[in-house]
Amino acid sequence: MNRTARNIRNVRTVRTAVCAAVVLGLAVGLGACSETVDQVDKAVDETYEVTYEVTGTSVDEIQFHAGGGKAMDPKIETVKSPTLPWRKTVTLRGIMPPAVMPIALDEDGADVACSITHKGKVIEEAKGEGLITAGGCVAVSPVGG
Fold it and tell me: Hey, how many other C-beta atoms are within 10 angstroms of the C-beta on 46?
């Protein structure tokens, strides 16, 4: 019995050490990834335009990537009580993803759709409940793609 308790304690100690190592590895890896993204963002200064569009009813506000900030920390602008249909064309840079997020406080009464268009082609769209749970429309940057 004493031996079993000691084995369980050893397994827990090893598991704790492995978890700590994994967390440390992730922290270091994500830090390196963030630095790499910043380097890529500096290297890729190409700009591109996208048009966001939100249609439907009962949208309380719209948040969207407006073009400022960094790829991993984009500037987000907010339009409160927007008139629908709503359209906005923005200029983004590098690998910053285009994103528009309509927010409806009354999910049951909201009939919402969003889209992101680049050079006349819809690159992302979402409708209805899927839009609310997915957080809107987010696309991959068309730069380099």
Answer: 13
